[in-house]
TrEMBL record:
Source superkingdom: Bacteria
Family (UniProt): Belongs to the GntP permease family.
Pfam families per the UniProt record, alphabetical: GntP_permease
Protein name (database record): Gluconate transporter
GO molecular function, one term: gluconate transmembrane transporter activity
Membrane topology type: Multi-pass membrane protein
Principal location: membrane
Subcellular location field: Cell membrane
Keyword tags: Cell membrane, Membrane, Transmembrane, Transmembrane helix, Transport
Length: 462
């Protein structure tokens, strides 16, 4: 490890600290401005040429908006229709009526576990926000939870979605590790499910029960209204859709994505049906179909005129404009750290370790993910470094792929777009966001590693 590697790591750490100070100190700088300033400061400190730095900022912001921003916008539209037509209110009423308050976190974790099988973390959260806000609002109004009802309901969802995202194929992280290590999808998936269950329990309902009384989180009133209450311009006298139609409207994007995941396992590569399911199951297309379905089937009854529906969809984007731009800023910061070669410095550092491949894979992936703000960079870097080792000695390679995936989840913080999505959606401070998504993902990551080491003591599945 060279002096330049140490310098790069110091710059990356200083950049994150500088970012946090700008936001939480007396400056109280808007997160988007703070992220842009941090990008420029880190880029110049790392010696990036001006043109490359600008390109990194633009590319990082654009890629993040393309991958996450459109989905978030479509999710806001879908959430608005579901709220205005009484769908989320009806579903949440059934949940609150049928499930005791003390068991609600477990019910929400179970829901997110299923939703999270085919969905990216950010997409799953966007799909479930209307349900989270609607259930939490009812608990909040009834004063049934000590502390923040939004944390009480939201923490189990975050834990479940994060666990599935990092541990279980067909999510891109685990699939990337599987491809690089040339291992078995089925075995990795089974191991992932086994590891995810205790991770979700400890990081979700159990941690949530501890942290809820300690936080007073309450989202912006505009977002609460958007996702959980009927607004002006809707047909207030219209009856709610039936429970079956409500579930279909709310979960159609998840169904389309899950269908693609099942098709990938059921059919050979190159089968014609896979191109169809891949298109319909793409997050952007699935969310678009969900919005159109809800607008056509629910919009006619829920809104008096077509103009009312269009006005409602336009209004749905206003509360999330701030969220979208901050997410884009997080993507820009992540790209600058990556292009500054911070990941290479971490790889050089990792070569100094002499550890079990499972622990080493987790550590390398964790360090890369934390330092660059990209779980993908963590997984790609760790898998590439350990692929020769996996091929050259007898070991449980599916567990190595799982360990790498778990490492990529650790301490999701200010250089991750997902951190900003949670923070801004729930109206959290930096400290509150750290106590939720950052700590939750760290718990999930560590529990996942412990499960990997325990399963390594047992006979291999393949």
């Amino acid at each position: 490890m060279t002096a330049s590697d140490i310098q790069l790591l110091a710059i990356a750490l200083a950049g994150v600290v500088f970012l946090v100070v700008m936001i939480v100190s007396r400056l109280k700088m808007h997160p988007l401005l703070a992220l842009m300033v941090a990008c420029v400061a880190v880029g110049f400190a790392a010696g990036m040429p001006e043109d490359k730095l600008v390109k990194s900022i633009v590319t990082g912001a654009g890629n993040t908006l393309g991958a996450v921003g459109i989905v978030v916008a479509l999710g806001a539209m879908l959430g608005k229709i579901l709220a205005d037509t009484g769908v989320t209110d009806g579903i949440s009423e059934v949940i609150v009526r049928k499930v005791p308050v003390r068991l609600l976190p477990w019910a929400m974790a179970g829901t997110a576990f299923v939703i999270g099988i085919p969905m990216f973390f950010e997409v799953g959260l966007v799909v479930l926000l209307p349900l989270i806000f609607s259930v939490a609002r009812k608990l909040d109004e009834a004063k049934q939870v000590r502390g923040s009802a939004y944390v009480y309901v939201g923490v189990p969802v975050i834990a479940a979605l994060a666990s599935m995202h990092g541990m279980v194929p067909p999510h891109p992280g685990p699939l990337t590790a599987i491809a690089a290590l040339h291992t078995n999808v089925g075995a990795t998936m089974l191991y992932g499910f086994i590891a995810a269950i205790p991770a979700i329990i400890l990081g979700g309902p159990i941690y949530g029960a501890w942290v809820t009384p300690r936080l007073a989180v309450r989202p912006e009133p505009a977002l609460i209204e958007q996702f959980s209450a009927r607004s002006e311009g809707t047909n207030q006298s219209a009856s709610r859709p039936g429970f079956g139609l409500s579930l279909l409207a709310a979960l159609l994007p998840a169904v389309l994505m899950l269908a693609h995941s099942i098709a990938e396992l059921a059919f050979d590569k190159g089968a014609d049906i896979l191109s169809v399911t891949a298109f319909l199951g793409d997050p952007v297309i699935a969310m678009l179909i969900g919005v159109l379905f809800a607008a056509l089937l629910l919009g006619r009854k829920g809104y008096g005129r077509a103009d009312d529906l269009r006005a409602a969809l336009s209004a749905s984007l206003k509360p999330i404009a701030n969220v979208l731009l901050i997410i884009a800023g997080g993507g820009a910061f992540q790209r600058v750290l990556t292009d500054a070669k911070v990941g290479d410095a971490i790889l050089h550092l990792s070569q100094q370790f002499s550890l079990s491949p499972l622990i080493l894979g987790w550590i390398i992936s964790m360090l890369l993910s934390v330092s660059t703000g990209s779980a993908t960079v963590g997984i790609v870097g760790a898998s590439g470094l350990l692929a020769p080792l996996a091929a050259g000695q007898a070991m449980n390679v599916p567990l190595l792929a799982l360990a790498i995936g778990c490492g990529s989840l650790f301490f999701n913080y200010a250089n991750h777009a997902g951190f900003w999505l949670v923070k801004e959606s729930f109206g959290m401070s930096m400290g509150e966001a750290t106590m939720t998504i950052s700590v939750i993902q760290s718990i999930v990551s560590v529990v996942g590693l412990v499960m990997v080491l325990l399963m390594n003591l047992m006979p291999a599945l393949v």
